[in-house]
Amino acid sequence: MKIGVPTEVKNNEYRVGLTPDSVKVLTEFGHQVFIQSAAGQAIGFTDELYKLSGASILNTASDVFNSSELIIKVKEPTEQEFQFLREDLTLLTYLHLAGDPVNAHKMLKTGVTGIAYETVTAGDDSLPLLAPMSAIAGQLSFVVGSYHLLKPNKGRGTLVSNLDPRIITVIGAGVAGKEAIAKAKANNANVKVIDLSQSKLDQMKVEFGEEDMEYILSTPESIRQAVAESDLVIGCVYVVGKEAPKVLSKDMLDNMTEGSVLVDISIDQGGCFESSKPTTHDNPTFVENGVVHYCVTNMPGAVPLTATNALNQATLPYILELANKGIDKALAENKHLMNGLNIQAGEIIHPAIKEALEN
């Protein structure tokens, strides 16, 4: 199979779809791999390393897309990349279609086959290709939240430490939430964990104990009360294939302390705070009603080397299956990979995506 890896074009996005080690595995199976020149340069994956791994280096994105049957990316295509998409091309990447319906419908018109990392499942119904980036985003949420609590960064001027214990609320106890909770607890915060599932809360209680921890069933009133007491609120709400529900309404900001910080990990799926709007690594925050909002849509892009290596460990077996069997056969024989199929030939295939985009 002819496999292409273009340079990512999103703001401050230095991740790359395939590492040189992954390219070596694919070429050893007889597949051709085309890498856009300098696609991995920023994280030390030089064109020379890719050549040594068996890849061919092409100069432009157009060259890569036109030469390939399967494109491996990290982030969803931007509008400037839609011109390269076509009906006989398969795209494997994070798509997050429900979070951006306008561009989703534009992409649909290209006829491209789109397989989304975030809806591929495993035998236990987990999301193995979303999990590594969720884990990284969860850890980063504490780091960036703490940083923006500093007074020079428009925060209230608090340090999350044993010197002055602060309150951190984590909404959503999935993969990202669990990592955020662990970081907060390790830094001596008083942590409020909010989730819709009592069984998930019970699971977190077993894992993290009860000292300096509070486990709260999610309701609008319980969220309102928790965020009013918090220095930092981390939103990690995710519903497969759908836009994130807005769990924190704008009027709840009225009860929050000036300089407190919101970090919306769910922003790729439209955001779980009503006041959220997408931001970039160049301009990561805005202040509304005195509350600092961090809503960067590619948070793991801040640690592109770590993120690329983690992502490739998860994606390579699926890429191999698609390449070795062919797209149609691989999808037909693997229901978990089939769950990743979002769009094909101008049609929305995934039921949840279909519901989200047609409403």
User: In the CATH hierarchy, what is the superfamily of the largest domain?
Assistant: NAD(P)-binding Rossmann-like Domain
- Arithmetic mean pLDDT: 97
Question: Helicity range of the residues?
Answer: 25-40%
Strand neighbour order, sheet with most strands: 3-2-1-4-5-6-14-15
Describe the structure.
With 359 residues, this protein is of the alpha/beta class. The chain is 34% helix and 17% strand. Strand 1 (2-5), helix 1 (20-28) and strand 2 (32-36) form a beta-alpha-beta unit. Helix 5 (131-148) packs parallel to helix 6 and helix 9 (304-325) packs across helix 10 (327-333). The chain is globular and about 60 Å long. 51% of the residues are buried.
Summary keywords:
359 residues, alpha/beta, Rossmann fold, 2 domains, 8-stranded mixed beta sheet, 7-stranded mixed beta sheet, 34% helix
Summarize this entry quickly.
With 359 residues, this protein is α/β, with parallel strands linked by helices. It has helices spanning 20-28, 47-52, 61-67, 101-108, 131-148, 175-186, 198-208, 220-228, 304-325, 327-333, 335-338, 351-358; strands spanning 2-5, 32-36, 56-58, 70-72, 90-93, 113-116, 167-171, 190-195, 213-217, 232-235, 261-264, 285-288, 291-294, 341-344, 347-348. The chain starts with a strand and ends with a helix.
